[in-house]
Specification:
The protein is α+β, with helices and mostly antiparallel strands. About 15% of the residues lie in helices and about 25% in strands. The protein has one domain. The protein has a six-stranded mixed sheet with strand order 4-1-3-2-5-6. A hairpin with a 7-residue loop joins strand 2 (about 40) and strand 3. The chain is globular and about 35 Å long.
């Protein structure tokens, strides 16, 4: 099966905004559909080079989340190009989680997950 998704950016469009943060997992709602990051959490890394960061738009249903084909591994820098507002959070420790603030007083607010 070939991957026919059309990602938001091509590799030559990516700017060096957050190099050296490792690999992450992101929802196609961000990387294909162009939505902003609505939820970010840092889990224990699963493999060498994994930053532990997972990025969701916040609109994914349980069915969507259950389908691994809706997610792709990227360099964290790639996701920062999609939504630069996540940049200040990238050095947070494992166990950190943030959701976009619906009141818009802050960009993200710390949440428990």
């Amino acid at each position: 099966m070939t991957d026919e998704r059309k990602f938001r950016f091509t590799d030559d469009q990516i700017k060096p905004l957050a190099l050296g943060h490792g690999i992450c997992c992101a929802s196609d709602m961000i990387t294909v559909d162009g939505l902003k990051v609505g939820f970010l959490c840092r889990m224990e890394p699963e493999f060498e080079g994994d930053s532990g960061w997972r990025f969701l738009a916040g609109y994914e249903t349980d069915e969507y989340l259950a389908n691994r084909d809706n997610f792709t591994s990227f360099d964290v820098n790639w996701i920062v190009n999609c939504d630069p507002q996540i940049l200040p959070y990238l050095n947070k420790p494992v166990g950190s989680a943030y959701g976009r603030d619906p009141t818009k007083r802050k960009i993200f607010m710390k949440i428990d997950y």
